[in-house]
Structures are given as structure tokens and as C-alpha cells.
Structure prediction request, 73 residues.
Amino acid sequence: MDSRGIGLLLVAGGLAVALVGLAAYAGLLRWFGRLPGDIRYEGEHVAIFVPLGSMVVVSVFLSLLLALISRLR
Prediction:
């Protein structure tokens, strides 16, 4: 891949991160961390959070997105 292609890929990645940040700021990602399967423990001196259910949803979404992109190429 030439440097122009890598630059375009970096710009697209940056825009994607910015869009996710705007969605989180707008409150559209309130569901993240509150799905069934997410483990949350809050003790007196410790808090543990393991978002298993949320990560499954994110993984399925990204897999479908990448499969769609590869089919369009």
C-alpha cells in the first residue's frame, strides 16, 4: 500500500473515532455496559467492571461491517 492509501486509511479511522466520541457525548451509547452478561462488582474499596455482553455486540457489529466492506471491494 502506498503512502497515499495509508494516509486515507488514517483519516478514515480518525473520523470513525470522532463519530463514536460524538455519539458517546450525545448519550447514544448509554446502553454500553448495561447489557445482560456485563459483570459489575462494587465492593467497599474496589470496583470491577467486565463488559462481556457489550463486547459481544461490538464484535458482531464490527464483523458484519468488515464483511460488508470486503464484499464491496
Remarks:
- The two ends are 15 Å apart (CA to CA).
- The chain has two domains: 1-30, 35-73.
